[in-house]
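Please, why this fold?
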Amino acid sequence: MDLVPALEEPLKKVLGPATAKVMAEHLGLHTVGDLLHHYPRRYEERGRLTHLAELPMDEHVTVVAQVADARLHTFASAKAPRGKGQRLEVTITDGSGRLQLVFFGAGVHKPHKELLPGTRAMFAGKVSVFNRRLQLAHPAYELLRGDTEEAVETWAGTLIPIYPATAKMESWKIGKALQTVLPSAQEALDPLPDSLREGRGLLPLPEALLKIHRPHTPADIEDARARLKWDEAFVLQTALARRRHADAQLPAVARRPQPDGLLTAFDDRLPFTLTEGQQKVSGEIFADLATAHPMHRLLQGEVGSGKTLVALRAMLAVVDAGGQAAMLAPTEVLAQQHHRSVTEMMGELAEGGMLGGADHATKVVLLTGSMGAAARRRVLLDLATGEAGVVIGTHALIEDKVQFHDLGLVVVDEQHRFGVEQRDALRGKGKQPPHLLVMTATPIPRTVAMTVFGDLETSVLDQLPAGRSPIASHVVPAADKPHFLARAWERVREEVAGGHQAYVVCPRIGDEEDDPGRAGKRKPPEDEAEKRPPLAVLDIAEQLAKGPLKGLGVEVLHGRMPPDDKDAVMRRFTAGEVDVLVATTVIEVGVNVPNATAMVIMDADRFGVSQLHQLRGRVGRGSAPGLCLLVTEMPEASAARQRLAAVASTLDGFELSRIDLEQRREGDVLGQAQSGTRSSLRMLAVIDDEEIIAEAREEATRTVAADPDLEHLPALRTALDALLDEEREQYLEKG
């Protein structure tokens, strides 16, 4: 966190324009403070060599090793036809393994003179394979001459810091740059209140920065890390605590349902009893709605745990109390689906003002961007007069023209798809701030929820309603075992023959506007070798209808279809008139067709863990067991296959989200990846540092309660300003 003017000095003034340009472009470092907070990834001990036996393929690595031998070869090539081509092969060793370095052409002269047997050096480059042997081609290197003045200064102490580096900026160059700026660490303002730092025995910030970059012992590293983790956790939790504190000062209308009103009438209609979890969470929500400051609650639940029902009961409670409720959905398909299921669940209670409507009935309306002008005008009028108690819609709800009579509750479905401005724009439509309920079907480990949604109280639904069926999941290795894929299509036919329906999901649409590059952006690095574009809905639907699923009713659904066509396909599928729906991820959330029992996900390795879990939740929604087949061409040893095996092995979304988080960096989870900047967490690991995050939250809440404007803590205020520049302000809300 860039804390003070001395640390705000641009790097180009301190290090020169060329180095500063590379640091800015490749590492996102612009100021002295940024560089001081670029922490070593690990440390090498002088006397201990890294394990060459454990080098990762295709990664940029830094190793410390000794030259075993060096040989210069000449060869003929197109550029040097008379056998004048030169190749230097150097073998290095660390006791655990050997690695070959190769240098070509004019690049051989310097290493030929310097890399003599017995020489020790740091080498950096990208690991590749040649003739079945690992090698580094043209690695950069830095000799470790223990006796020269410069080397002793550069690698002071016995621990060599290895920094996150790039091909353009090796670790030791970053180390040398840090040597230049390290004196500025003395001027770093300390954001932790003295009482907190002393009470927990943490180092002062300048000392922690010196020890993280120039440690003398492993204990120095531990002390520095402990302190720097607290910085990140405490500053972030202070930002969230201030949001909670500010929200708690806002006035809101307390909404208590009438004793025998709409909610009671609705509950009497339900053909089943609520699960214990639904009753408990509803109780938490109703208690919040009855207070005179706005509710801010995150409702997270397993796929199919009945979140929509809990949200609907909250909406009806608000309508009972004379207010209106709005539900914001991320897509038109989902908005239409919610509208359909809500009106079905409510029956005549959703027919307020109509012939045959029940006594306590209200009007439930749908508002989307593609509606005709006349229908839209009618809905806007119903909202402005208060005739409609419940509205379900997409971003269209946020437009200026939309006015409410008395907006009391906003329910946001799938929070991670809405930015801060959208959430606030809808909240701004109330005469007083409305209550807010945020729903997500991607279960989030508790600490991530505390870090990302720290301004929201959290409720968790982890029970599945009675009558839900188990889902069997299997990986189908299409390249290794093509007969498994043939069997997958047989299973689909069997489900259809048994009176059920199936989904086939593809990563891409496949029309001419389709951009294969877009689907490719989500590919994990190991897929780079896979040149084939992702499978497409339109191609697969045609192949299936002519081949393995010939004779079945196969239709397509994707995001670029006209809204009426999408709605018509969904209605036909829901009514059982379509056997197999070939779709993109538009069916990912909220689509509810209990008769659909099988799902085949093509190129499953192109989807994330939580996305696969979401998709799988579309089957097994009725009394018949569900089946989900994850089709992939990735080899068995790949990380992608391990990810799919993890999804197939458990239906527990919280367990999967932990696996997901361990495989990805926090940056993705914390919303920074979407805004194109780096995660502000450089030292803190959300899963490993649960205790620090929880303790920091308590300390931050106490600090903000005692001094909401942080008047007595100027350094903490400065650190907050650095964290909450515009992009990071959004990240607090994104999740």
